[in-house]
Amino acid sequence: MAHSESKELKQADHLIRKGKINEALKIVLELEKRDDISPQELLSIKVLKAKCLYMSGNFLDALKSAADIFQESQKQGDLLASFDALTIQAFAYMMSGSLSQSADIINQAEEIFKIIKQSFTIDLRRRESFFVRIKASIHYFKGEIQRSLELNKKSYELAKEISDKPSMAASLNNIADKYLHLKEYDKAILYAKEAVKIKYEPSLAYPLSTLIQIYINIGNVKDAKVYLDQFRELIKKPDIKGFKYLYRLDQALILKSSMRARDRIKSEDIFKELATDNTIPIEQRYESIINLCDLFLIELRITNDPEIIDEIQPYIQELLNLAESQHLYVILAETYLLQAKLYLLIVDIKKAKRFLTQAQKIAERFEQKELAEKIVNEQSNLINQSDIWEKLKEMGAPMEERIKLAHLNEHIEEIVKYRTMLPAFVTEEKVAIHKEKNICLVCRGEVLRFSYICECGAIYCDNCARALTNLENVCWVCDTPIDYLKPVKPYKEDVEEINLNLKGKK
Ligand SMILES: [Zn+2]
Ligand SMILES: [Zn+2]
User: Fold this and answer.
1) Partner residues linked to 474 by β-bridges
2) In a 3-state reduction of DSSP, which class is residue 460?
3) Which ligand approaches the C-alpha of residue 476 most closely?
4) How far is the CA of 38 from the centre of ligand 2 (A)?
């Protein structure tokens, strides 16, 4: 009979529930080697192994393992193992930032779950709790925070009924995190503290980190430090040291909130280190880079030194690469918007306009209505204020004033506080982008039927080519006219005037 669990397997499962993942993994690896087990038993062993892998943060191995289980389970017609394999894959994909894959797989799992519910009489609550929690996270990444909150609560109730500690702790922390995003700080603190109370060590780092971030957000650095101390103790344990990056991020956030320059420099160093570390999860890298930009802007205001804008560039580039490789188009558009504003500070109107166009086209292409509207707004602001910008440059106005006019502070603050990572989700058909495919230079979308290919090799989708024809009518790479029948309208006036102003000053 399938799913009869051996004594060892039960023991391994018990160890996982107690948070002793490494010990459980050892047993499972031993079991896997034995030659007196049936193919069905081997499948159960492998499921537990994949579970240990994802629970210890080893998502790539968990993915490999789960793919293997899925194939084997299909052969054996083992629906439960198929469902387990899919949920583990969906979770691991989500944790490693591949959101669209995760969503696809969870849909597949949902179909199987319907069949299982009809044909099995076993207790499915543990599986359902995990499944519902992954779904909750997918809604969260789509920007549907309320829906995510409801589902996380459902996941928690299911886990609580069967005293499934790992799942209880995870759902509670997710609930706290959602309340943090909704700025309902009292509730956020309440749920995060409940999650800490469960004391499930393998994932205890999450609620501690959530608490630190809530307290920083409400300006209570004292309490934030209390939890940072607890976090420091926790990562001393060998099983937990994988969470060091999260501890470092929280530490940097606390240092950044300090008024002392020395602390800010320390936090800058940590953010720089995390920003360029490609072994840590994408969300934390993103947060590090955004915080770094924020620090650079503070420095820019104080020192008035425009060279700082150049210093930010490699990090912005990193952010763009990250967003593009992960198909996070909202972040991509937001980052171009940020770029536009940075160039506005040094009154490079041509670049500012181009980055704004790019941000707008990306937002339109990936159907981010709200963002597209926001960018259109910025564009009309820029047109209305271009005289003021030129005057500021002419007068050599301090950066402080320029940052204010660009509303740069608000923009960064928004990104930092609400972590715009969230609504970054795009469905698979919109992200079917591979290297071999043609990508539009402007909107970063796939060029399907109609396109414009410049003699220099730059590719524009039909939509962007038309938009550019009406704007500058030149290729962004080589400056050749796009439509020879139409006049070329480079952002000449702006550039010339600025040059004149500069000469005048000298
Ligand atoms: Zn395009
Ligand atoms: Zn060209």
Assistant:
1) 481
2) strand
3) 2
4) 63
Assign residue 343 a region: left if phi > 0, alpha if psi is -120 to 50, beta otherwise? alpha
Tokens representing 89 are 């894959």
Work out the pLDDT band at 80, boundaries 50, 70, 90: very high
- In the chain, where the domains are located: 273-426, 451-505
- In whole angstroms, what is the distance from residue 169 CA to residue 499 CA? 60
pLDDT digits (tens, 9 = 90+) for 154-164: 999 999 999 99
Question: Mutual orientation of helices 329-345 and 369-395 as an angle, nearest 10°?
Answer: 10
Which ligand places an atom closest to the C-alpha of 443?
Answer: 1
- Dist. CA 477 → ligand 2 center (Å): 5
pTM: 0.76
Tokens of 471: 């704007």
Question: What is the mean predicted confidence (pLDDT) over 257-272?
Answer: 92
Residues 347, 395: Cα–Cα separation, whole Å: 12
Ligand 1 center to residue 406 CA distance, Å?
Answer: 26
Helix (H) or strand (E) segment spanning residue 254: helix 244-256
Residue among 200, 209, 137 at smallest CA distance from 167: 200
Measured in Å, residue 453 CA sits from the centre of ligand 1 at: 12
Q: In angstroms, rounded to a whole number, what is the distance separating the alpha carbons of residues 80 and 337?
A: 47
- CA of 481 from ligand 2 middle (Å) equals 8
| H runs (alpha helix) in 56-184 | 59-76, 79-95, 99-119, 125-141, 145-161, 165-181
CA of 446 to the centre of ligand 1 (A): 8
| Amino acid letter, residue 148 | S
**Coil, strand, or helix at residue 344?**
helix
By the 8 A CB rule, do 379 and 354 touch? no
Q: What pLDDT band is residue 49 in, cutting at 50, 70 and 90?
A: very high
CATH 2.60.40, applies to 451-505: no
Q: How far apart are CA 200 and CA 500, in angstroms?
A: 66
Model confidence band, residue 436 (pLDDT cutoffs 50, 70, 90): very low
Q: Is the pLDDT of residue 245 over 80?
A: yes
CA dihedral 282, 17, 193, 231 (to 10 degrees): -60
What confidence score (pLDDT) does residue 1 get?
37
d(CA 500, CA 506): 10
Question: Within a 10 A sphere around the Cβ of 374, how many other Cβ atoms?
Answer: 17
In terms of Cα–Cα distance, which of 84, 83, 78 is closest to 53?
84
334, containing H or E segment = helix 329-345
Helix (H, G, I), strand (E, B) or coil at 461: strand
Structure tokens at 45: 């062993």
Which ligand is the nearest neighbour of the Cα of 479? 2
Which ligand gives the minimal distance to the CA of 466? 1
Q: In 266-385, which ranges are E strands?
A: none
Q: Nearest bound ligand to CA 441? A: 1
For the stretch 161-215, pLDDT in tens is 999 999 999 999 999 999 998 889 999 999 999 999 999 998 999 999 999 999 9
